[in-house]
DNA sequence: ATCCCGAGGG
DNA sequence: CCCTCTGGAT
């Protein structure tokens, strides 16, 4: 009777965690508001270091004024900055929104490419943003979205030892079946917001305590 | 490793 | 005051 038979593997633990989180957050989905893939891309760029709730406060005015890639690319930079200012990093975000939409117009015929390598050439877009747009905009599961919540919870749950989001993503891709990758991210984000908070995790209210090496008594 | 950057909570 | 929020580029 070996140790490995008694103790659950990381993979088994990951699956059990996902089962429980699906039960707890059955209808979890992307919480950004958008009408088109381009709007989803813009909302996701805006969501860097900012709550989705705040992004959803600026996008109604933003998308009303500049509804598509052409309008965004041609927008007055200062007006755009003013519209997105409250999301923080507004100069970088405005520059990236216009750089990305301009490239979509010029090089991709006005539509967001559905290949990971091509999306990654857009300014201000790395794997986190690309995974969100591919999964929720086009239904293509290319990787695991690793944001601040997915990173923190995956580390606390002992499923990765890495700090680099790309390495964390690789670890998670090896632990979970591909069709569940985005389900994993969405549930961890919900759980991170509601229970496993960065500052003061509510372990007493967490349904994963028996599976979590970081759980506090 | 550092910078970008506002808003809200403790 | 300090920390955190669906990061990415230099």
Automatic annotation (TrEMBL):
The UniProt note on the cofactor reads as follows: Binds 1 [4Fe-4S] cluster.
Its EC number(s): 4.2.99.18
Query: What is one process in the GO biological process aspect for this record?
Result: base-excision repair, AP site formation
Amino acids binding [4Fe-4S] cluster: 196, 203, 206, 212
Point out the signal peptide segment.
Answer: none
Please give the SUPFAM superfamilies that the UniProt record associates with this protein: DNA-glycosylase (SSF48150)
Query: InterPro entries, per this entry?
Result: DNA_glycosylase, Endonuclease-III-like_CS2, Endonuclease3_FeS-loop_motif, Endouclease-III_FeS-bd_BS, HhH-GPD_domain, HhH_base_excis_C, Nth
What is the reaction catalyzed?
2'-deoxyribonucleotide-(2'-deoxyribose 5'-phosphate)-2'-deoxyribonucleotide-DNA = a 3'-end 2'-deoxyribonucleotide-(2,3-dehydro-2,3-deoxyribose 5'-phosphate)-DNA + a 5'-end 5'-phospho-2'-deoxyribonucleoside-DNA + H(+)
Question: A single GO molecular function, which one?
Answer: metal ion binding
What are the residue boundaries of the HhH-GPD domain, all occurrences included? 46-194
Q: Which UniProt keywords apply?
A: 4Fe-4S, DNA damage, DNA repair, DNA-binding, Endonuclease, Glycosidase, Hydrolase, Iron, Iron-sulfur, Lyase, Metal-binding, Nuclease
Superkingdom is Bacteria
**What cofactor(s) does the depicted protein rely on?**
[4Fe-4S] cluster
Q: Does the keyword GTP-binding apply?
A: no
Is 4Fe-4S there in the keyword field? yes
**Job of this protein:** DNA repair enzyme that has both DNA N-glycosylase activity and AP-lyase activity. The DNA N-glycosylase activity releases various damaged pyrimidines from DNA by cleaving the N-glycosidic bond, leaving an AP (apurinic/apyrimidinic) site. The AP-lyase activity cleaves the phosphodiester bond 3' to the AP site by a beta-elimination, leaving a 3'-terminal unsaturated sugar and a product with a terminal 5'-phosphate.
Question: Which family, according to the similarity comment?
Answer: Belongs to the Nth/MutY family.
Q: What is this protein called?
A: Endonuclease III
From which organism does this entry originate?
A: Lusitaniella coriacea LEGE 07157
């Amino acid at each position: 009777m070996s140790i490995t038979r008694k103790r659950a593997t990381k993979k088994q633990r990951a699956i059990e965690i996902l089962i429980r989180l699906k039960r707890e957050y059955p209808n979890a989905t992307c919480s950004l508001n958008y009408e088109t893939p381009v709007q989803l891309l813009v909302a996701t760029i805006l969501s860097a270091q900012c709550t989705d709730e705040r992004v959803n406060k600026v996008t109604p005015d933003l998308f009303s004024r500049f509804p598509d890639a052409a309008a965004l690319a041609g927008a007055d930079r200062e007006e755009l900055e003013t519209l997105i200012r409250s999301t923080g990093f507004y100069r970088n975000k405005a520059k990236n929104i216009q750089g990305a939409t301009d490239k979509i117009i010029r090089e991709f015929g006005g539509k967001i490419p559905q290949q990971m390598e091509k999306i990654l050439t857009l300014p201000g877009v790395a794997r986190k943003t690309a995974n969100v747009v591919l999964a929720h905009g086009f239904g293509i599961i290319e990787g695991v979205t690793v944001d601040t919540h997915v990173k923190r919870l995956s580390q606390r749950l002992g499923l990765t030892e890495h700090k680099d989001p790309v390495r964390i993503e690789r670890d998670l891709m090896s632990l979970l079946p591909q069709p569940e990758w985005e389900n994993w991210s969405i549930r961890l984000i919900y759980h991170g917001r509601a229970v496993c908070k960065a500052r003061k995790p509510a372990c007493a209210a967490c349904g994963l305590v028996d599976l979590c090496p970081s759980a506090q008594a």
